């Protein structure tokens, strides 16, 4: 098969380097009849997709196998898509520039709900039928994975295979089975899907029937036959030191969102914040050892030439060897001017000494995430953090010469009142005061406090999965209240568009009936919904109307504990009993301690990793 | 402190990376090749290297130049080999030499750039007719370019500047014409004093003559960059001060 000729098009589009496919450490393989072709698809533009660590891991993992060729596929930007449609160029793999229609597998990563229409648009641009039931033996098998795949139901009719949990091992197992079955003459997709359905971490939506009550909620979800598991369990990697991690990563030409080495230090989180889906679905905590990280760092730096390394995890200050690791990185790489960034630091165990060490090489900003303005509400969400923790940390930061801090909050959390919002204002003002109370000689010049308030969206597998999203009116009112309260030259206030949060909330807890909404959305031109310049709320509301589906049923309705939720047949290890318990504790503002201190009995140690987290 | 000046080419797919991207590619290539490049002081140290000019997106070049400061001296052959080993296809160091610390920066010395420009003409024309049109164009006393600039800090307000670009055109010749495809060789002003892009010349050529040109078909290649030494034009690697 020849490479598609896009050379002339590249002269006409913005940032043509997005489409080259020959970046450092990308793979280019000879393709023969034995080659299994896998397209790792990220349903957003290159700069976003290339910042995704999971893609780098799976891309290199798959390409280490001689008989598999994994290529990258991103959503082309609007201008490129127009050129492609005009010139009849189907969506292609970046590396081979060959149509993905002829690949064996296309694996889409589901990072956020507002990218769902981009998935459909990519299939459409590739010339592949949208609905799984309409695809033939020659079409690729469509796979999804990633955080939103824990409730893949709105996409269930479009996909063939859902990967639940950590994909390193299970993806290879699926491909292995495919390879073995392909060798026989009578390969049939339906046989293959039945064959892989029992593998832990594999969910085949077409093998389950969903029935609904007249009033709307689900009546039952049942497998089509008894060879298919009733409950699908997520997959986890037991030993993070032994699991594959790339020693080289693709280095983009153009600037991407996270243009640096991302070194994963651990998975999972023990904090138990009740709003946080990642903190629940990625349990249990598993760390990489110091020696492994030391070795990986050396190789990754040598193979990429990057000037910055970021220690990635859900809560990097909880890494047990953080101090040792950071000091090693400084000792070893300060001479090469390699910067270190520590995202997701918690201020309650903020190690200022460490931060100061890092700042000797490259200076970065400081971000704190109190999440809620009042102690009462922070207790409701189990953010074990006090106002003193924050003020102490901020005082310390100012006295060390920082003058710019960011504060992250959420609005619309369960039980929130305007008093809690007053708390956001008061905290911000306290931070400003704290700056002026710092000795002039010590503090930096030009104070700037940035307050960001995102809208809380209830997610599956969290203690708040039964809670309603605030109505648009309520969110607007709260945003306005904060805009008024935070009028100060020293404070910059940012907030998110409530309408995108509404759509996110619909799809996050949606069921299979939303597939027709997505398909219709694509027909009328919905795509790049996460981008303000493309998002059209009114168009979406018209789509819901035409499909006779009430979006508020999904977004703004409080569910009862005994309702069958669309994702109840999926087991992420955290039990429903635990989530109910946590929701009840939230209502009374009762804290649950960090699992490192005391086991909270979430259920993850039952059958996942022999008894200990 | 050691200063190196290198000439490199930019071809193939790499013509689609911007000047900023190119800087990053070089930075990271230097690290991978273990070139002992010097860094600036301060909170955000960056490697000390400076390019001659920024090449536009989509333009290939046989003659790009870069000055690099090193903390220790390494053999020039080793510099070329080590870097070429790690540079992507499409970027290649061709030549390099140590230069005096007193040598003026590339940006300051570059005066002219020679390009090949390939375009498709929309109507058939003979070589003679095309040459005549070209001569008429270069014979013009003034070629005025109207530049609109946004006013600083003000939206929707523009200042309009009239610039005569004729003095920035040193020569244009027709190298070949085959089946409506013309290749011109242009010698234009480049560098900090009066940089003229070949695509502007083509646009003006179309505007001020009878020629019908398909602008989308335009492809540009830089052949050489020149500095001026006592009235003659030489490459930035020639006529250097002794170290």
Layout of SSEs?
The complex is a heterodimer of chains A (613) and B (243).
Chain A: H1 7-10, E1 36-42, H2 46-49, H3 53-63, E2 68-74, H4 78-86, E3 105-109, H5 116-126, E4 141-145, E5 161-163, H6 167-183, H7 189-196, E6 202-203, E7 208-212, E8 218-223, E9 232-233, E10 261-264, E11 266-267, H8 277-281, E12 286-287, H9 290-304, E13 308-312, H10 322-333, E14 339-341, H11 352-359, E15 366-371, H12 375-380, H13 387-399, E16 404-411, H14 418-436, E17 448-455, H15 472-485, E18 491-495, H16 498-508, H17 515-523, H18 537-546, H19 551-555, E19 570-571, H20 576-587
Parallel strand pairs in A: 1-2, 1-3, 3-4, 4-5, 9-19, 10-13, 13-14, 15-16, 16-17, 17-18
Antiparallel strand pairs in A: 5-6, 7-8, 11-12
Helix pairs in contact in A: 5-17, 9-10, 13-14, 14-15
Chain B: E1 2-10, H1 19-32, E2 49-51, E3 60-70, H2 76-86, E4 91-99, H3 106-109, E5 110-121, H4 127-138, E6 144-150, E7 158-164, E8 169-178, E9 181-189, H5 198-208, E10 213-229, E11 232-234
Parallel strand pairs in B: 3-10
Antiparallel strand pairs in B: 1-3, 1-4, 2-3, 5-9, 5-10, 6-7, 8-9, 10-11
Describe the protein in words.
The complex is a heterodimer of chains A (613) and B (243). By secondary structure, chain A is α/β, with parallel strands linked by helices. Chain A has a domain at 7-233: 3-Layer(aba) Sandwich (Rossmann fold), CATH 3.40.50.280. Chain A has 20 helices and 19 strands. A six-stranded mixed β-sheet of chain A has the order 2-1-3-4-5-6. Chain A has a four-stranded parallel β-sheet with strand order 15-16-17-18. A three-stranded parallel β-sheet of chain A has the order 10-13-14, covered by helices on one side. In chain A, strand 13 (308-312), helix 10 (322-333) and strand 14 (339-341) form a beta-alpha-beta unit. With 243 residues, chain B is α+β, with helices and mostly antiparallel strands. Chain B is built from five helices and eleven strands; from the N terminus they run βαββαβαβαββββαββ. In chain B, the strands form two sheets. In chain B, strands 1, 2, 3, 4, 5, 8, 9, 10 and 11 form a nine-stranded mixed β-sheet that branches. Chain B has a two-stranded antiparallel ribbon with strand order 6-7. The A-B interface holds A 10-12, 16-17, 20, 22-24, 251, 253-255, 301-307, 336-337, 359, 361-363 and B 13, 16-18, 20-21, 24-25, 27-32, 39, 43-45, 57-58, 86, 88-89, 216. Chain B: Pfam families: DUF2344. Chain B: Residues 3-198 form the DUF2344 domain.
């Amino acid at each position: 098969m020849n490479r598609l000729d896009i050379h002339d098009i590249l002269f006409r589009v913005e940032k043509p380097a997005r489409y080259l496919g020959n970046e450092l450490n990308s793979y280019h393989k000879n393709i023969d009849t034995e080659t299994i072709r896998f397209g790792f698809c990220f349903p957003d533009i290159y700069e976003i997709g290339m910042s995704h660590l999971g893609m780098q891991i799976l891309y290199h993992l798959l390409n280490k196998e001689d008989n598999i060729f994994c290529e990258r596929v991103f959503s082309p930007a609007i201008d490129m898509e127009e050129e492609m449609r005009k010139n009849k160029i189907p969506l292609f793999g970046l590396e081979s520039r060959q149509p993905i229609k002829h690949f064996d597998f296309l694996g889409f990563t589901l990072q956020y709900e507002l990218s769902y229409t981009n998935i459909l648009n990519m299939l459409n641009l590739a010339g592949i039928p949208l609905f799984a039931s309409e695809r033939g033996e020659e079409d690729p098998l469509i796979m999804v994975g990633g955080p939103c795949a824990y409730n893949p139901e709105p996409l269930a009719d479009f996909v063939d295979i859902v990967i639940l949990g950590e994909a390193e091992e299970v993806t290879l197992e699926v491909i292995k089975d495919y390879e073995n079955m392909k060798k026989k003459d009578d390969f049939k997709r339906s046989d293959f899907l039945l064959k892989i359905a029992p593998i832990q971490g594999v969910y085949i939506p077409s093998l389950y029937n969903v029935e609904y009550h007249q009033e709307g909620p689900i009546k039952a979800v049942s497998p089509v036959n008894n060879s298919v598991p009733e409950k699908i369990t997520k997959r986890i990697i037991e030993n993070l030191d032994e699991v594959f991690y790339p020693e080289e990563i693709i280095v983009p030409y153009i600037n991407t969102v996270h243009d640096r080495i991302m070194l994963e230090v651990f998975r999972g989180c023990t904090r138990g914040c009740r709003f946080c889906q990642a903190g629940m679905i990625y349990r249990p905590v598993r760390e990489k050892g110091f020696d492994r990280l030391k070795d990986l760092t050396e190789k990754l730096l040598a193979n990429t030439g990057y000037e910055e390394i970021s220690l990635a995890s859900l809560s990097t200050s909880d890494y047990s060897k953080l101090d040792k690791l950071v000091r090693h990185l400084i000792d070893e790489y300060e001479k090469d001017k390699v910067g270190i960034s520590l995202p997701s630091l918690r201020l309650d165990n903020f190690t200022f000494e460490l931060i100061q060490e890092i700042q000797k090489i490259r200076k970065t900003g400081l971000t704190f995430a109190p999440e809620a303005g009042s102690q009462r509400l922070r207790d409701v969400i189990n953010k074990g953090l006090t106002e003193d923790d924050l003020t102490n940390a901020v005082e310390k930061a100012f006295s060390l010469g920082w003058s710019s801090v960011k504060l992250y909050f959420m609005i619309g959390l369960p039980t929130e009142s305007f008093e809690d919002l007053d708390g956001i204002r008061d905290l911000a003002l306290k931070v400003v005061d704290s700056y002026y109370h710092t000795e002039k000689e010590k503090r930096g010049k030009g104070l700037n406090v940035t307050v960001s308030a995102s809208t809380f969206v209830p997610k599956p597998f969290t203690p708040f999965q039964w809670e309603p999203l605030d109505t648009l009116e309520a969110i607007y009112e709260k945003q306005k209240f904060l805009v008024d309260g935070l009028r100060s030259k020293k404070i910059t206030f940012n907030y998110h568009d409530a309408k995108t949060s509404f759509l996110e909330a619909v799809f996050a807890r949606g069921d299979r009936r939303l597939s027709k909404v997505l398909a219709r959305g694509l027909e009328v031109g919905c795509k790049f919904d996460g981008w303000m310049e493309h998002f059209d709320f009114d168009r979406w509301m018209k789509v819901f109307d035409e499909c006779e589906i009430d979006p508020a049923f999904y977004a703004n309705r409080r569910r009862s504990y005994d309702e069958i939720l669309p994702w109840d047949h999926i087991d992420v290890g955290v039990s429903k009993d635990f989530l109910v318990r946590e929701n009840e504790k939230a209502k009374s503002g009762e804290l649950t301690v960090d699992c490192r201190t005391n086991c909270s009995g979430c259920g993850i140690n039952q059958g996942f990793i022999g008894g200990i987290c | 402190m050691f200063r190196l000046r290198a000439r490199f080419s930019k071809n193939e797919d790499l013509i689609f990376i911007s000047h900023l991207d190119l800087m990053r590619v070089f930075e990271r290539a230097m690290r991978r090749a273990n070139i002992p490049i010097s860094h600036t002081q301060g909170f955000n140290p960056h490697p000390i290297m400076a390019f001659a000019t920024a090449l536009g997106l989509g333009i290939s070049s046989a003659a790009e130049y870069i000055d690099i400061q090193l903390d220790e001296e390494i053999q020039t052959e080793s510099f070329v080999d080590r870097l070429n080993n790690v540079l992507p296809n499409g970027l290649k160091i061709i030549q390099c030499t140590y230069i005096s610390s007193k040598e003026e920066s590339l940006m300051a010395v570059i005066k002219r750039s020679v390009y090949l420009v390939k375009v498709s003409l929309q109507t058939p024309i003979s070589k003679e007719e095309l040459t005549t049109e070209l001569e008429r164009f270069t014979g013009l006393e003034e070629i005025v370019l109207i530049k609109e600039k946004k006013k600083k800090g003000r939206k929707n307000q523009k200042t309009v500047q009239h610039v005569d670009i004729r003095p920035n055109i040193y020569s244009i010749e027709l190298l070949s014409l085959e089946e409506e495809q013309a290749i011109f060789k242009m010698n234009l002003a480049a560098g900090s004093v009066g940089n003229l892009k070949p695509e502007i010349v083509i646009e003006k050529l179309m505007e001020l003559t009878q020629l019908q040109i398909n602008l989308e078909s335009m492809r540009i290649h830089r052949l050489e960059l020149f500095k001026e030494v006592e009235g003659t034009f030489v490459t930035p690697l020639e006529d250097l001060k002794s170290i």
